[in-house]
Amino acid sequence: MGSLPLLLFLLIAAVAPFSDGCGITVYWGQNGFEGTLQAACSTNDYKYVAVAFLTTFGNGQTPVLNLAGHCDPPSGTCAIFANEIRYCQSLGIKVLLSLGGAIGNYGISSTGDAQQVAAYLWSSYLSGSAGPLGNAALDGIDFDIEYPTSTLHWDDLARAIAAYSTPERKIYLSAAPQCIIPDRNLDVAIKTGLFDYVWVQFYNNPPCDYSGGAGSLIKSWNDWSSLLPAGNQLFLGLPAAPGAAGSGYIEPEKLKSEILPVIRQSANYGGVMLWNRYYDVNNNYSPQIVGDVCPPAATAAGKFEDLVISQVL
């Protein structure tokens, strides 16, 4: 009987990595043939959706939202997604606006510039006031900063956005660095510890993605797991189909048998990120892995069931 509290503690510890936000992240917005945001959320395959991308911002520029063929921001037609965002949120899915991407014109020139961009993001996307996506209040901001800029004030931008969080409402931050360490753009920002979720792009980088073999990928994962500040969740970023990236694709069965059982042991494991919804739809990828990304709590609990019962008796 005296050891029961310890066993309960171990039980809680066993399920904890999968109880706080574990799931699949998907990028949506860069292909007009990927379907609606609501359709993506209604699959119940995703825990997070990154709406991509705000491709122009900073340096005094007028911000530009690019959602490919979904809508035309200048004419206001992207406001139709406000209800779809709220629908996703009603299912417990966090919806974030993704900054940057591989093509765009963005950068932060100073601390003051970071504060101005943060103010714009708050008023236009996070506060619930009317903005390019209507009056929906997004849950946070994703940093997908993919090309070098002359100045690196991404840590200042992260701090400026995080400052809008209150005890009543948290603004979530995520980052999508390349798997090569250190990331050329986001290294300093990530080390602030402000990013709740870090979905590392383990693709288009043969030295640290699956194209170098499972061992290479797992070593890179472990390096990232050790690097992240406490409290940040680490996600395995993957292409959702062979054509989604130049390298790094993993067949679903190999992911489930070779990779997930290993990386799920990391205390800061958060799940899998997929690029992107269009490829996921066409390759039917997330439905094949969703049951293995975050084992249900009952699975972990079952490991201790007989032990707990025996101690009670």
Automatic annotation (TrEMBL):
Domain annotation GH18: ranges: 22-296
GO molecular-function term, one example from the UniProt record: endochitinase activity
Recorded catalytic activity of this chain's protein: Random endo-hydrolysis of N-acetyl-beta-D-glucosaminide (1->4)-beta-linkages in chitin and chitodextrins
Record key words, sorted: Carbohydrate metabolism, Chitin degradation, Disulfide bond, Glycosidase, Hydrolase, Polysaccharide degradation, Signal
Enzyme class, first EC level, given as a word: hydrolase
A UniProt-annotated Pfam family: Glyco_hydro_18
GO BP terms in the entry: chitin catabolic process; polysaccharide catabolic process
Keyword Metal-binding (UniProt): no
Entry annotated with the keyword Amino-acid biosynthesis: no
Signal sequence bounds: 1-21
EC number(s) recorded for this UniProt protein: 3.2.1.14
InterPro entries assigned to the protein according to its UniProt record, in alphabetical order: Cts1-like (IPR045321), GH (IPR017853), Glyco_hydro18_cat (IPR001223), Glyco_hydro_18_chit_AS (IPR001579), Glycosyl_Hydrlase18_Chitinase (IPR050542)
Task of the protein: This protein functions as a defense against chitin containing fungal pathogens.
Family indicated by similarity: Belongs to the glycosyl hydrolase 18 family.
Name of this protein: chitinase
Organism: Salvia divinorum (Maria pastora)
